[in-house]
Write a structure and sequence with these properties.
Layout lengths: L7 E7 L13 H14 L3 E5 L12 H13 L7 E4 L3 H11 L3 E4 L9 H8 L3 E4 L17 H19 L4 E4 L8 H9 L1 H7 L6 E2 L5 H7 L7 H13 L4 E4 L2 H15 L3
Parallel strand pairs: 1-2, 1-8, 2-3, 3-4, 4-5, 5-6, 7-8
Length: 267
């Protein structure tokens, strides 16, 4: 369980019946086996999600999300570093009361729950803030940007002030590939990702592109076939300055990070 150079590998464990990539869906009773496998492959953070955020997905109730999440949280091996993929402050409080500090991974950067940022700040938790417009149900209709990269930078400039007001000291920036962006906008943003990195030099950037539609639709393949192409996009993001990879395939991502370190960090 260690970083590859300065690159963090976050392994995705979806405790949901409807996440877009079937290979990532596990019930709580087999989650432990998946977590152990990811740790052995080199993940240094495990991202637990009990609420699918694929485009158009209906959102479960708070109690349903917690029913899926609680058994996995309670069965975690000692010392495992986790993030929880949620936009609900009540889930954050319940996880904290159960296991103590963890990373909050919020697709809405506090927009879907007005108590989220103050809760994270009060508990002193690290926070992943992602760029998205609307909600998972509506986001793909909200793609009318003049300049998507500039919109992402402006969004995080505004967010940084909110985080400061809420007392959030440690936050990671996620540009939100696949969220409220067209296929073309995803690649435009990838091409100019270094501009986002330079705009926030004190922040780490997390990239979640694993098996997403920006890859499989572009190539006319399925999510099951998209792992090698995912590695290509991850490598490109690392070249642009990303340092966190959120992935379904930990061993492959570790290899991508190792080759990136060998090729680009020894120049």
């Amino acid at each position: 369980m260690h970083m590859v150079g300065n690159i963090h590998i976050m392994g995705i464990v979806n405790l949901t019946p409807d996440s877009f990539y079937a290979g990532s869906r596990v019930q709580a009773d087999v989650a432990l086996e998946r977590i152990q496998s990811m740790l052995e492959e080199g993940a240094d953070v495990i991202d637990l999600g009990a609420c699918s955020t694929r485009p158009g997905s209906p959102q479960p109730s708070l109690e349903e999300e917690w029913r899926r999440l609680e058994p996995a949280i309670k069965s975690l091996p000692l010392g495992v570093k986790i993030s929880v993929d949620t936009y609900r402050s009540e889930v954050v409080k319940r996880v904290y009361d159960t296991i103590g500090p963890f990373i909050v991974n919020d697709i809405s950067a506090g927009q879907m729950d007005e108590k989220m940022l103050e809760t994270v700040g009060r508990l002193g938790l690290p926070y992943v803030a992602m760029h998205m417009r609307g909600t998972p149900e509506t986001m793909q209709s909200l793609t009318d940007y003049e300049d998507v990269t500039r919109a992402v930078i402006d969004y995080f400039r505004e967010f940084s002030l909110k985080a400061q007001d809420a007392g959030i000291k440690q936050w990671i920036l996620d540009p939100g590939f696949g969220f409220s962006k067209t296929l073309e906008q995803n690649y435009e943003l990838l091409e100019r990702l270094d501009e986002v990195v330079k705009a926030f030099p004190e922040r780490k950037m997390l990239i979640g592109v694993s098996r997403k539609s920006m890859i499989y639709k572009k190539l006319g393949i399925t999510p099951d076939e998209a792992m090698p192409a995912t590695q290509v996009v991850q490598f490109a993001a690392l070249e642009k300055g990303a340092t966190w990879l959120r992935v379904h395939d930990v061993a492959a991502a570790v290899n991508t990070a190792r080759l990136y370190s060998a090729i680009c960090l020894t120049r």
